[in-house]
Design a protein that fits this description.
alpha+beta, DNA-binding, 6-stranded antiparallel β-sheet, single chain, 12 strands
DNA sequence: ACTCTGTCCTGGAAGC
DNA sequence: TGCTTCCAGGACAGAG
């Protein structure tokens, strides 16, 4: 399940190989993968053809590649926006390599214009079709006029690895929220890039129960929690991201190995590693929360007294 | 204004 | 064996 570290691994791979390459041709094999492109699949193909791909950017789980249309007068800057959803992959291959099973979109690239052994095709593969590609206009952000982001990403909050990430501002917002802390962690408008895996891992590290009301957390607890988010994401990035199966891979099709470092997520029934080190044999538990699983240690992460859903 | 649920999707696993 | 049901969850529309 791609969250921030996985998307960043993909961004770095793309940056190395596709920057300054021209799109020779585009093929949409499943129109559902471009459903967020309002003007439809045909416009997607014709608008992307002959565009030159610039340095890929990211905010949270959103990835975008600014486009440069060499021969055409630039109306306003645009970008190819990528969201991997649940199972999306960006793969760089030779165009003659066999097509993977869930191949949805292919971009033929002009490898001759760039690096010698560059791949000749960018492929979007997506089993569950929650992800997709679309074109969008780039606009300056509200607080940094030199920073351009797609209009559809303006409502997304800065992520924990962003230089302008401001934890005191986050605390101010959280102190007014009634809702459970995990719901706030997963809310991409406040802070982006956190999904179910890193939410559970950060809460475990910070020893906070997923159902703790936001407005009952101290400034210190909020600081600690977001430091834990940053630490767990930095470690995951170092280890190439989390892969449970073939659903998440980097641009070369390789899996990350952060799943071996997980302390809570997917660890139901296993000993809590921290408790074990302290001489307790507590098991990690799984609760249903927000229609998904929440993994936690019942000793380290005590339930709030007033349990609300 | 804020909070929360339902929906989109596929395929592997579990249940009968 | 073969069928059905469940489960995974990111983002957003729309309900409360």
């Amino acid at each position: 399940m791609p969250e921030l570290p996985e998307v960043e691994v993909v961004r770095r791979g793309l940056s190395r190989w596709i920057t300054n390459q021209e799109v020779l041709d585009v093929e949409v094999l499943d129109p559902r993968s471009v459903r967020r492109h309002r003007q439809g699949p045909i416009d997607f193909v014709t608008s992307l053809r002959q565009a030159v791909l610039e340095q890929p950017q990211r905010r949270g789980k959103y990835l975008w590649i600014p486009l440069h249309h060499a021969p055409i007068e630039q109306k306003s800057p645009t970008a190819l926006v990528v969201h991997l959803g649940m199972s999306g992959q960006i793969l760089l291959s030779h165009h003659s390599a066999p097509a993977p099973h869930h191949l949805r979109i292919r971009l033929r690239l002009d490898s001759a214009s760039g690096h010698g052994q560059a791949p000749t095709e960018l492929r979007f593969v997506d089993q569950r079709i929650f992800g997709g590609l679309y074109l969008d206009r780039l606009v300056p952000t509200a607080d940094e006029p030199d920073e351009l982001i797609p209009t559809t990403v303006t409502h997304i909050g800065r992520d924990p690895l962003d230089n302008h990430f401001d934890v005191d501002h986050i605390y101010q917002v959280l102190s007014k929220k009634q809702t459970a802390i995990k719901r706030a962690l997963l809310d991409q408008n406040l802070v982006s890039g956190i999904g179910n895996i890193y939410a559970d891992e950060a809460l475990w590290r910070a020893k906070i129960h997923y159902n703790r009301p936001c407005n009952r957390l101290s400034r210190k607890q909020v600081r600690t929690l977001y430091q834990c988010v940053q630490k767990v994401m930095e470690q995951a990035l170092k280890e190439g991201g989390t892969s449970f199966d073939a659903l998440y891979v980097n641009v070369n099709g390789e899996s990350g190995y952060f799943d071996r470092s997980l302390n809570a997520y997917h660890q139901e029934g296993k000993y809590c590693r921290r408790c074990l080190a302290e001489g307790y044999d507590t098991f990690i538990r799984r609760d249903k929360f927000m229609n998904r699983s929440s993994y936690y240690c019942p000793r380290c992460q005590r339930k709030p007294r007033t349990t609300q859903r």
